[in-house]
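# nightly structure sweep
# worker-07 picked up a monomer target from the shared queue
# config: single-sequence mode, recycle default, output format = structure tokens
# input follows
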Amino acid sequence: MEDQSGAAEHDFTGAAVILRVLRVSLHVGFAVLLLVALVRLLAAGVHGAAWLQVGLVLCLAGVYLAGTVLEKRHSVRPGRFDPRPLSAWWLAAVCLLWLLLVWGSADFVWLAFPLFFLQLHVLPRGPALAAIAASTMMVVAALWFHNGGPAGSQLQLPIVLGPAFGAAFAVVTGLAYRALYLEAENQRLAAEELRATRAELARSQHDAGTLAERTRLACEIHDTLAQGFSSIVLMGRSAEQALDAGDTGLARNRLRTVQDTAAANLAEARNFVRGLQSPDLEQSSLVDSLRRLCAQTETEAAARGAALSCRLEVEGTPADLPNPYRTTLLRAAQSSLANVWTHANAGTAVVTLSFLGSEVAMDIFDDGAGFDPAAVPNRADGSGFGLASLRDRVAALAGTLDLESAPGEGTVVAIRLPLEGRTPPGTPAGAPGKAGR
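# output follows
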């Protein structure tokens, strides 16, 4: 689109230069012919009716100059006064003053040639041709009149052929100028439309980028900060209950968990600003991070009074995964296990990480209450958002996410991610194990 816009602007610029040269030549030609006629008039001596001729010359020059100046000002700044609706009246005033000058002196008949171009430019084609024909006849009549026509002299052939050929040449040239003018206008409009389209596209891309960034931050906040704050609230309540019961040891343990969780959230927030991966993955491997997550899940469930056993199982030889893969898998485990200890009322949760050569798979199983996946809402309070954001994360890596659950039958979240440079997903390479199934 940028190439098309640039080509349109280039063509429009070239045509505009040609039109400007032709327009300036027309105005200069009119001014020179008017000045030559005025000089010849003054050289013959100014007396009697000649003063009226001088006044008409100055009036014609003023009217012509006013029209061209107004047209130029409007073309440079379209917001200014638009003289185009009055252009026909302006041309009529110019032609009337020219006719009065021709009546007084044959030296002014040659102004007809620039007037032919003005008539073609200002008037529609039919009226313009009629005006040119009438002007040509007026030139012939004026030449015949000023060369002794009323005294009975015959109409000489050069007096007719000169203006006729001049008018024909002006018509051909004027029509070519008009076609070039219309083409330049079309190119100008096309260039403006392309610029507007390009600006709209830039705005759309900016809005899409902003929306994508907001979605990314929403996923990060849901999977990290929101879960961390939920854990802090839970541990704080558990510590308060322990203090009320006089169990300072348990309260101290819960407060220590609050401190650790708050520190982790702070690190995550700082990483959002820097655009880095999870701090857990910067300091340890994915397997170690998942193992710590399982232990933290047991602690958070215990704070709610639930006896949840959460463990990690690794199948295959752990591979060095790219950062986006490690982050996606860790976020998936965080979100899924948070749902387990928050909603599932499960006794067992198992995270199975499988390295299958051509892909990496992770299953999160719990034996909790289960639910109907088709009825999962995306509520205004933010709950229900985790599954949708997880699907987006997995899809961004060309992976697949399967959710198996039913009321009273537990839940399995199965994720498969193809490894870069390996066999694409879908190639049989062994199915990921359904832990606990």
